[in-house]
Amino acid sequence: MRSSIQKFDATVILKIQELPPSWRTHFRHMTLIGQPVFALAVSGSTALYAEYSGQWQLMLAAITVGITALFASALKFVLRRQRPATLYAASMRLKTYSFPSGHAAATIACYGLVAYLCFATGGMLLIPGILITLMIASIGVSRVYLGAHFPTDIIGGWLLGGTGLFIASSMLYL
């Protein structure tokens, strides 16, 4: 099983590394926007707004996506998968583990909730919903492109964050 995962990771990394070097600036910006601390700020701000406006379902949903982001970061210290042996990973200020990707989990949970609300509202908010969805995908790819994660770290983060998003969006209809 391990060799199949390593083979999958190696194949996807090669494909992503074929993207033009001119995309590096874009991916650096995406990885910055995708930091879990920013997603937590969105989650916290949404929870405060929801509490202030009396929307308890939205408040619970926002708290759920925040907990999902924190859980993903904590899970790294349980699973302890080493990051890729890249210059980028070695130069990271905060030395954490690789699986699951906190960026991927936090962005799909927190920004995914915002996209979900855009799609649910419809109309002119469909375009921001699509742009947010593309941003989430770009953040995940950025982590592999820059060398911070293996592709399976991103997939694991998306699955974990997607689970949190599913639970959170279900809370909106309690």
In short:
With 174 residues, this protein is mostly helical. Helix content is 77%, strand content 0%.
Helix proportion range = over 70%
Label the structural class. mainly alpha
Largest sheet: none
Strand content: under 5%
Q: How many distinct helices?
A: 8
Total strand segments = 0
What is the chain-wise order of helices and strands? HHHHHHHH
Q: Characterize the overall form.
A: globular
* Distance N to C terminus: 41 Å
- Name the poorly predicted regions: none
| Alpha-carbon Rg, integer | 16 Å
Mean model confidence by pLDDT: 92
How does this structure look, described?
Helices cover 77% and strands 0% of the residues. The chain is mainly α and 174 residues long. The longest helix has 24 residues, at 56-79. The model has no long low-confidence stretch (mean pLDDT 92).
Keyphrases for this structure?
174 residues; mainly alpha; single chain; globular
Question: What is the topological layout?
Answer:
Layout: H1 2-17, H2 24-33, H3 36-53, H4 56-79, H5 87-90, H6 102-121, H7 126-146, H8 151-171
